[in-house]
Amino acid sequence: MPGPEAESKLPGEEDEETGPNRRCIVTGVVRPKAELLRFVVAPDDSVVPDPNHRLPGRGIWLSAGRDVVNTAVAKRFFSRAARRPVTVPDDLAGRIEALLVRRCLDGLGLARRAGRAVCGFEKVCAEVRAGRAALILAARDASRDGREKVRALAAGHGGTGCIPVIELFDGTELGSVFGRDTAVHVCLSPGKLASRLVGEAALLAGFRQGDVGEEPADTVRRD
Question: Which residues belong to any copy of the Ribosomal protein eL8/eL30/eS12/Gadd45 domain (predicted)?
Fold first, then answer.
């Protein structure tokens, strides 16, 4: 990957803030905006993550990955894209991970309050068998046996196609949404909230994949 000193412009520097796609300034990959992270430079010249894509200013876009963010910081891609010196927060990748986790859990909370999310293995089984489950979440720190059970449930729920399984959140994180100390199995019914969570989790996967001891967690499983 060429560094900023090896080229006159970074990929995407001349891209306009229009259209459905953006280019990552580190990798040069073009993706839909929803699949990238947006940053802006604040009036104090600090780099600010913009997960909602709403903050004013020219966007700086990165692929969703810890290594990409760390490369952008180490090689000063943000300053190059902004065409001026900028200040980058300490542990920017860690801050983004925490922000994405919060967004996912907030979305799950919306689904719970709307009556479109349940937790508990038996309740999840009932929703799956009734054809009312569009997405399953399994705690990444659950036992191997528990995760295998939910994967089998998702894969064999009637032959209409596998239900996606997300394994990115700790049991305590899932439990906090449902007012419990911990939750291991959660499912969402079809709709925009489930689709939104799949998209948010795909961004988070670039920061949390393989974060469970010696047994890497899967991100969004469809097997």
Answer: 107-188
What pLDDT digit, counting tens, does each position of 41-69 carry?
Answer: 999 999 999 999 999 999 999 999 999 99
CA nearest 170: which of 126, 122, 105? Answer: 105
Domains in the chain, start-ordered, CATH in brackets? 4-89 (3.30.1230.10), 94-221 (3.30.1330.30)
The C-alpha angle with vertex 202 and arms to 198 and 203, in degrees rounded to 5, equals 125
